[in-house]
């Protein structure tokens, strides 16, 4: 029987400020390639346990997710996503003999049916894999700007930014999800597309019961979706489908069936492409047949870095996820140990490391096909040492003060969803995919039954001005035709000191993806929390601008907040930060945990 976790959805005071201080056989898993990159973490000292014992965590009394909960355990395989039905689809494919890649692709298509606010075929994403034989790969199927896109297309006649990069037909980049998932399956999977898509097709055709999480999401999207199309399966007769109702999506089932039978050509050239282009023409969009026909996913070498001897594999540009995570963690690694989790000094150091990494992210990262990106420098330990030297123990440095120094130093020629899958052989897949905003641009493609992305807002639509996530980004990420907009998505695989997969993790949440994902990793590696504690621990975020430390309500006790204010941090409180889904290897198998602040399912056997 599958093991499932249903969809449901003390810190230390001022005194601590002073310095208290946290497989198996190789599968028939792909059409091989000796030229593919491998990444081996440095091995630990002999006798070093691969998974050191976990240490009990303590969270503030006012925090709503107490420490000590348990994740879902399964001995062989595990899939975790924001949808229990989609996670179950992945587990079913593995039971039929598929590997983690087959299962992840099944999960990705199923999410497009069961979690339509973010799971998609009308958007794009990134996948990082590590096969049991040591091969690693990353595939970039981020959307690209249509050929007719222009730098200032979202400015009005007075030069002011409009909301057209977020809502409506102009907001979409050329979708990459179908091409990316098909390419991933082709190279590393063992089953044909027609087989792994069966669960998704059945869920769309036969329907499934809407739970409260999905019903809430549908209800919140009513205005933005019905504005473009009054009647869709989510809004029959214009009314939001309630919890308990069955969501049946016949148009989407037909689209998925066509892709299953004809491959990505059905989406990029066939009748689905015609429907998409017709939808664009109906609403004044600029995406054309030529855009669709020209779309190509890109294989990339994962960012690989280490943190205290553990290996980290993550996504390189066009996502900023891997570089920014590596940069922040390299800065933190300069400290012999981190202060105790939850202490004022911990928040200060972690927030300051993120602040510096985001200054670089916002000014230097973009699509490498258009802009030279100083990857080696930004991820180097030497550079991290220089950045660490700029962190004062007693004063938060204003971003505006740091920016000029860092520009000098490094000059050189709500909604996304993450899923993690591992199989019994030790193959691991981390995928993050998105429409950007929840329900994307709000535009549903008539006849083909899927939502389109509003990814164009991830460009700097007006360099120097904040986007939807408050990110202030530079000219390097300005709109250009055919360019990929910079992302924060951070699908990440962590290897233990014996080179085995330890964590498969990633998140949704715009720029907080980077900080949320890396905090779960830090909680496990540095503070030796269990997966459940690492996921439930209060989170913090800093993205350079706005120049503030964002924290979760109840997650930092008043005395620690006072200390942080005392050293000059502007503090911003949110109810919750980031939607992470993770798998961790434990003795005898895997633990899986969907985001405890949101909803999802961990399914394994
Ligand atoms: O690629 C990015 O960084 C954004 N489009 C992600 C958006 C996101 O996570 C929204 N979800 N909460």
Number of helices: 19
| Quantity of strands, as a count | 20
Mean of residue pLDDT?
A: 92
Oligomer: single chain
**Span between N and C termini?**
7 Å
Shape call: globular
The number of domains is 1
Please render the helix and strand layout as text.
Elements: E1 3-5, E2 72-74, E3 78-81, H1 84-95, H2 100-114, E4 124-130, E5 136-141, H3 177-188, H4 193-196, H5 198-206, E6 208-209, H6 212-220, H7 222-226, E7 246-247, H8 250-262, H9 265-268, H10 271-283, H11 289-294, E8 298-300, E9 303-307, E10 310-314, H12 321-333, H13 344-364, H14 375-378, H15 381-389, H16 399-410, E11 416-422, E12 428-434, E13 492-495, E14 501-508, H17 512-525, H18 531-536, E15 540-541, E16 549-552, H19 558-566, E17 571-574, E18 579-586, E19 589-593, E20 601-604
Parallel strand pairs: 16-17
Antiparallel strand pairs: 1-20, 2-19, 3-11, 3-20, 4-5, 4-12, 5-8, 6-7, 9-10, 10-13, 11-12, 13-14, 14-18, 15-16, 18-19
Helix pairs in contact: 1-2, 2-3, 2-5, 5-8, 12-13, 12-15, 12-17, 13-16, 13-19
The structure holds 6-diazenyl-5-OXO-L-norleucine (DON).
The site of 6-diazenyl-5-OXO-L-norleucine has 14 residues, from loops.
């Amino acid at each position: 029987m599958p093991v499932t976790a249903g969809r449901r959805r003390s810190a230390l005071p001022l005194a601590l400020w002073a310095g208290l201080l946290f497989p198996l056989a190789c599968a028939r898993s792909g059409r091989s390639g000796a030229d593919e990159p491998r990444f081996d973490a440095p091995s630990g000292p002999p006798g070093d346990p691969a998974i050191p014992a976990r240490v009990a965590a303590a969270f503030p009394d006012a925090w709503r997710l107490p420490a000590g909960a348990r994740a879902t355990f399964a001995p062989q395989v595990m899939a975790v996503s924001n949808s229990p039905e989609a996670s179950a689809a992945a587990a079913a494919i593995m039971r039929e003999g598929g590997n983690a890649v087959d299962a992840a692709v099944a999960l990705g298509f199923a999410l497009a049916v069961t979690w339509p606010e973010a799971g998609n075929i009308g958007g794009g994403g990134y996948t990082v894999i590590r096969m049991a034989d040591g091969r690693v790969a990353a595939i970039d199927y981020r959307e690209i700007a249509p050929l007719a896109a222009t730098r200032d297309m979202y400015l009005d006649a007075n030069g002011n930014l409009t909301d057209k990069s977020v809502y409506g037909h102009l907001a979409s980049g050329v979708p990459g999800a179908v091409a990316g998932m098909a390419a991933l399956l082709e190279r590393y999977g063992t089953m044909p597309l027609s087989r792994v898509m069966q669960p998704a097709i059945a869920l769309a055709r036969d329907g499934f019961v809407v739970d409260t999480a999905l019903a809430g999401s549908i209800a919140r999207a009513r205005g933005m979706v019905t504005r473009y199309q009054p009647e869709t399966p989510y809004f029959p007769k214009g009314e939001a489908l309630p919890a308990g109702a069955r969501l049946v999506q016949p148009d989407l089932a037909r689209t998925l069936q066509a892709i299953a039978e004809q491959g990505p050509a059905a989406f990029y050239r066939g009748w689905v492409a015609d429907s998409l282009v017709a939808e664009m023409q109906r609403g004044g969009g600029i995406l054309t047949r030529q855009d669709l026909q020209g779309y190509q996913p890109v294989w990339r070498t994962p960012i690989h870095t280490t943190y205290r001897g553990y290996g980290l594999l993550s996504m390189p540009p066009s996502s900023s996820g891997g570089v920014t995570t590596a940069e922040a963690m390299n800065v933190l690694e300069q400290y012999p140990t981190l202060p105790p989790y939850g202490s004022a000094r911990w928040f200060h150091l972690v927030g300051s490391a993120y602040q510096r990494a985001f200054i670089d992210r916002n000014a230097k990262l973009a699509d490498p096909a258009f802009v030279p990106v100083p990857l080696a420098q930004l991820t180097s330990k030497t550079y991290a040492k220089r950045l660490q030297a700029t962190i004062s123990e007693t004063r938060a440095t204003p971003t505006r003060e740091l920016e000029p120094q860092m520009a000098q130093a490094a000059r050189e020629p709500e909604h996304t969803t993450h899923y993690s899958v591992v199989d019994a052989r030790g193959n691991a897949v981390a995928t993050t995919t998105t429409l950007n905003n929840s329900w994307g641009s709000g535009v549903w493609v008539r006849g083909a039954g899927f939502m389109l992305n509003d990814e164009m807002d991830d460009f700097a639509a007006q360099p120097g001005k904040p986007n939807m996530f408050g990110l202030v980004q530079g000219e390097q990420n300005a709109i250009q035709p055919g360019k990929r907009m910079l992302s924060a998505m951070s699908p990440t695989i962590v290897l233990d000191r014996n080179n085995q997969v330890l964590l498969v993790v990633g998140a949704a949440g715009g720029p907080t993806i980077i900080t949320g994902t890396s905090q779960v990793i830090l909680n496990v590696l540095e503070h030796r929390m269990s997966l459940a504690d690492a996921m439930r621990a209060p989170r913090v975020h800093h993205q350079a601008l706005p120049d503030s430390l964002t924290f979760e309500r109840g997650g930092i006790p008043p005395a620690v907040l006072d200390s942080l204010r005392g050293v000059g941090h502007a503090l911003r409180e949110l109810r919750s930060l980031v939607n992470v889904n993770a798998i961790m290897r434990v003795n005898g198998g895997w633990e899986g945990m969907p985001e405890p602040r949101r909803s999802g399912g961990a399914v394994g056997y």
